[in-house]
Amino acid sequence: MERMDMLVALVVLLGLVGTSTGAVYKVGDSAGWTTIGNVNYGLWASKNKFHAGDFALFTYNKNFHNLLEVSKADYQSCNAASPIATYATGNDSVPLKTAGPHYFLCGFPGHCAAGQKVEINVQKASSAAPSMAPAVAPAPASGDESSSATATATPAPTPNKNGAASTKFSVGVGIVLFLASLCF
Ligand SMILES: *[C@@H]1O[C@H](CO)[C@@H](O)[C@H](O)[C@H]1NC(C)=O
Ligand SMILES: [Cu+2]
């Protein structure tokens, strides 16, 4: 039974490891977050597939640029006056927490209009972990059965009932072996 529990735990653990580390996407690739070179951020975004839990890494010279997350309307009109979030370190790893579109622009005058803006469409996290949860439940119940089967094998036999006792014993061992075989 314990081996079964360990197996279930291992599978659940592997599922969690597979989904807990988000990918990091550097915005603009080697160009980074800039107005130099007319980087096509729309093209960059369309070449990547973002999932909830991933990160968008914006790298830039903080003396000349910043990073604002804004609403769709503000993204379209390049309005930097009412951001949802503001970043200004020059090396901002922005967590893409929720599925759906996320809008970013540079708040320095004229930069958004010059094309320093990006829409990142985030898909739901592809997760196997939740579907594994029900498999954990049945394990404890079968543990009780095997211990009661072992108990029937222990009573001290009287000389007369030797045959009956040894039959009980083999049935008990049989049940234990049968249950054990289910685990492997
Ligand atoms: C920028 O941030 C990323 C992710 O947080 C980190 O791995 C990297 O070392 C940072 N680079 C600099 C120059 O600080
Ligand atoms: Cu800028």
UniProtKB/TrEMBL annotation:
Any single GO CC term annotated in Swiss-Prot or TrEMBL for this entry: plasma membrane
Keyword match Cytoplasm: no
Keyword DNA-binding annotated: no
Family matches, as InterPro entries: BlueCu_1_BS, Cupredoxin, Phytocyanin-like, Phytocyanin_dom
Region called Disordered, residue ranges: 133-163
Residues spanning the signal sequence: 1-22
Coiled-coil intervals, chain numbering: none
Residues annotated as transmembrane: none
Entry superkingdom: Eukaryota
GO terms of molecular function: electron transfer activity; metal ion binding
Entry keyword set: Copper, Glycoprotein, Metal-binding, Signal
Biased composition (Low complexity): 133-155
Residue ranges annotated for the Phytocyanin domain, each copy included: 23-124
PROSITE patterns registered for this protein in UniProt: COPPER_BLUE (PS00196), PHYTOCYANIN (PS51485)
PANTHER family tied to this protein: BLUE COPPER PROTEIN, OS07G0570600 PROTEIN
Record's protein name: Phytocyanin domain-containing protein
